[in-house]
Amino acid sequence: MPDDAKTTPEPEAPPQAPPEPTPPEPEARVEATPEPPPDPEEGEPGGDDPQAVRARKEYRGRKRAQEEAQREREARIAAEARATVLEESRRQAPPPPAGPPAPPAYKPSDLMRSVSAGTVTREDAEAYIGSNYPALRGKPLEAAVAAEVVQEQMTALHRQSQVQTVEARANTEIQDYVKHVPALAQTTSREFQDVAKAYQGLVQEGYPDHITTQRLALRTVFGPLERVASTREAQMDQRRNAPAQTGGDGTGRRPDAQTKPPSNLTDRQRDFIKQRGGNPADYERVAAVHTVADWKRTAAAKKP
């Protein structure tokens, strides 16, 4: 090969990109091994040295944690069981009963006004009444309006009758209260003033100014009518069975009327009482005589 032969230079290799840095390998995390729960068979460690005291504290702490975890686990299981039972009972419960159907949106009187205004035809109005009021199906619009008026009047009478019945019952109960508590008939009595104060308080709280509120005021002050009646009856029985205040014989006389005559009698009056055997009834009769003339007429009338 001649020396002057030109040599072809070899092509240079393209520059290579620097190698990507290798990410550091994650360090292995060493998880702490949970301590085993205390063995009940081993029992609480004993000893008085510091290591024994520390071991005993750790034992008690682990035991409390284990008991708390057990209680939480049992509570969670119980809650899940209750939720399952509730869901099952809700799934098996029958559907609630359907409520009453909603009333029609338009009354026959409303349709009559619309027909008169020209916004609804008579045929459409009667068709609407027939589909929403089965009892009026096939009747003309005027008959439906008349039936509506009659129904409203009957409803008003029924409502008024109910109101009158309630008022009559309230009035009867109030009269019974007055019968058992006679002081209520006097506006100046303490009982009447207490009831009036209670009534004003109820009205201020929003109760209506009505006879039923008066009855409620009586119940508030004295309690139920049955209790008032029983208390009144017990008081009357006690009065009937109790002896008289003046000696216990039920005659109503003073105790000293059976032992000695009044001190203002004359000698002639005393002699008359002795002749009559000293009957206490004569004592009272003689005591009522104010003059000698009256006494003489009384004595003469008693002669056989």
Total count of strands: 0
Label the structural class: mainly alpha
Specify Rg, calculated over alpha carbons: 54 Å
| Mean pLDDT value | 75
Task: Quickly count the helices.
Answer: 10
Helix content: 55-70%
Q: What ranges have pLDDT less than 50 throughout 5 or more consecutive residues?
A: 247-258
Overall, the morphology is flat
SSE string: HHHHHHHHHH
Main sheet characteristics: none
Structure characterization notes:
The structure is a single chain. With 304 residues, the chain is mostly helical. Among the domains are: 31 residues; 100 residues, no CATH class; 43 residues, no CATH class. The longest helix has 43 residues. The N and C termini lie far apart (203 Å). It is 58% helix and 0% strand. The radius of gyration is 54 Å and the shape is flat. It contains 10 helices and no strands.
Give the arrangement of secondary structure elements:
Blueprint lengths: L49 H43 L15 H10 L4 H11 L8 H40 L9 H15 L6 H12 L2 H17 L25 H9 L4 H8 L4 H11 L2
Helix pairs in contact: 2-4, 4-6, 4-7, 5-6
